[in-house]
Here is the input.
Amino acid sequence: MAWQGLKAVGLAEVGMALVTGDETPVEIILLAYGMEEGLRGFYVAMTSNVNDKEVAAMFTKLADIEDRHKEKLFKLYRELDPSVPDLETFEADIVGKVMEGGLTAEEFLEKNRLAMETVPDVLSMAMMIETQALDLYLRYSNRTKDEKSKGVLFEIAQEEKAHLAALGRVMDKNVRTQFQA
Here is the structure.
């Protein structure tokens, strides 16, 4: 509802270095799992960085949802490769635990600390990250040739869209409360 016609700038290939389009479903799952862990780490860090209890609760909820995404990805992985004995063995194969932009949660927080001083700033940053996740999963889905991988990536993109909507509701409520004060 707040969109004012602004458009993203930059090359469409930004963030695509991790995917060539020839990945197997197993490789896509490993990549997505690592990104979900990176985003979960960001939300856990943000929970302790905000003073607003409602916003902290939202970040805790989002971190929990990222854990559920990881569970779903691990279950799918086990369907494709039942030889993996447990989660620990699976996680040893994860390439990295980076957020969708290629940074770890710690790196991202360090680079953007000054842009996250108020509750609306923090919520805006989280909305930006969820938007990037949505976009990246959709672009990965379009690039991969395997139909099962496409389906997994598209489903995760739709869940990221729901996260964005939830953050928007908290932002709307937060902004309204500020204007009423």
Summary: Residues 147-180 form the longest helix (34 residues). Residues 19 and 175 are 38 Å apart (CA to CA).
